[in-house]
């Protein structure tokens, strides 16, 4: 479950195939793409946000996805054609900037030898190649755990390669549409690393336990299916069923990771809209929930906010 909150930073991690692993995720063939386009339906949550006589769009995304959810439906395509700039939490098309940002991060707490051994075993079971685990070994422990957790979701047909940000980034690159990152890698990683060392160790142990837990696996599937169906009310109540917020420390960390990032995101969306070019903004759907939900914050800034789907 925590992997869904962190996966914006995990799109560069490419899974490899073992004998009992899910098949490689690759680019669909032209025939498959044509079929997906002809049957495309809208998923997630979409709002029109209007101020100063101009409309932009806000799209609640999922950082993991299924192949059948990949292509944009009619409403999202309309939003695409009516906008000129794509804004995402992080511009993942800037690979050099991503690498530089990751390289400058403080190491902070680390995995204990026992935790590292458990993570390596879980990674092997989830078909995560050794080079991927090694590539994030210097990153915060929760980041390392999230890589393995996100890749383990491939067994249920969920893959970061089919996340909506990946699709939107590809569309923007194909037509040379400007892509703007609303946050830096450093800002996102600071939120991930905001728990105390003691709380971080506890959450790591809990996360390692969850990797082999069918209940947590079902929760991840429920979150993704609820997103696909546009059930914002189910996502808003995620703490009651995600099995990821069982302690005060975990709940506080999730709020720092999600809710407390929303005011700066809303400020940057407002500033980007004010530049005069209509924007399609893609931000994780959980940021659209709670008392600091981005649609609420934008409404407070004078936007007319209309839910499209």
Keywords:
single chain; 309 residues; alpha/beta; six-stranded mixed beta sheet; 15 helices; 6 strands; 47% helix
What does this structure look like?
By secondary structure, the chain is α/β, with parallel strands linked by helices. The protein has one domain (2-12, 30-108, 158-195, 214-307). It is built from 15 helices and six strands. A six-stranded mixed β-sheet has the order 4-3-5-2-1-6, with helices on both faces. A hairpin with a 2-residue loop joins β1 and β2 (54-61). α5 runs parallel beside α7 and α14 (262-274) packs across α15 (294-300). 40% of the residues are buried.
Provide the structure class: alpha/beta
Number of helices: 15
| Count of beta strands | 6
What is the residue-mean pLDDT, rounded to a whole number? 86
Arrangement of strands in the largest sheet: 4-3-5-2-1-6
Radius of gyration: 19 Å
Distance between the termini: 24 Å
Structurally, how many domains make up the residues? 1
Tell me about the largest β-sheet: 6 strands, mixed
Oligomer: single chain
Secondary-structure element order, N to C: HHEEHEHHHHHEHHHHHHEHE
Using the alpha-carbon principal axes, give the shape.
globular
DSSP helix fraction: 40-55%
Q: Which residue ranges are poorly predicted, with pLDDT under 50 across at least 5 consecutive positions?
A: 2-19
Strand content: 5-15%
Draw up the topology in text:
Blueprint: H1 2-6, H2 30-38, E1 45-51, E2 54-61, H3 74-81, E3 85-88, H4 95-103, H5 113-125, H6 130-135, H7 141-152, H8 164-174, E4 179-181, H9 185-192, H10 197-211, H11 214-228, H12 232-236, H13 248-257, H14 262-274, E5 279-284, H15 294-300, E6 304-307
Parallel strand pairs: 2-5, 3-4, 3-5
Antiparallel strand pairs: 1-2, 1-6
Helix pairs in contact: 5-7, 5-10, 7-10, 14-15
């Amino acid at each position: 479950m925590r992997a869904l909150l962190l996966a914006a930073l995990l799109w560069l991690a490419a899974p490899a195939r073992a004998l009992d692993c899910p098949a490689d995720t690759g680019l669909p063939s032209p025939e498959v793409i044509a079929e997906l386009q002809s049957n495309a339906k809208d998923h997630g949550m979409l709002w029109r946000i209007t101020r100063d006589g101009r409309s932009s769009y806000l799209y609640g995304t999922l950082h993991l996805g299924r192949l059948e959810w990949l292509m944009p439906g009619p409403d999202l395509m309309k939003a695409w054609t009516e906008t000129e700039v794509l804004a995402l939490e992080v511009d993942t098309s800037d690979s050099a900037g991503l690498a530089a940002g990751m390289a400058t991060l403080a190491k902070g707490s680390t995995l204990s030898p026992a935790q590292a051994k458990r993570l390596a075993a879980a990674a092997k079971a989830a078909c995560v190649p050794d080079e991927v685990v090694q590539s994030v070994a210097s990153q915060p422990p929760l980041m390392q755990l999230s890589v393995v957790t996100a890749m383990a979701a491939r067994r249920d047909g969920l893959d970061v390669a089919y996340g909506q940000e990946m699709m939107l980034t590809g569309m923007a690159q194909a037509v040379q549409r400007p892509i703007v990152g609303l946050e830096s890698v450093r800002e996102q990683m600071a939120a991930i690393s905001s728990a105390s060392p003691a709380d971080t160790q506890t959450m790591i142990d809990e996360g390692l336990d969850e990797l082999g837990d069918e209940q947590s696996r079902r929760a991840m599937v429920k979150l993704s299916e609820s997103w696909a169906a546009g059930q914002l009310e189910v996502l808003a109540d995620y703490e009651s069923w995600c099995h990821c917020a069982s302690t005060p420390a975990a709940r506080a960390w999730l709020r720092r990771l999600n809710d407390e990032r929303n005011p700066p995101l809303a400020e940057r969306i407002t500033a980007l809209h004010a530049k005069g070019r209509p924007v399609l903004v893609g931000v994780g759907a959980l940021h659209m929930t709670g008392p600091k939900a981005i649609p609420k914050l934008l409404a407070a800034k004078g936007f007319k906010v209309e839910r499209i789907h």
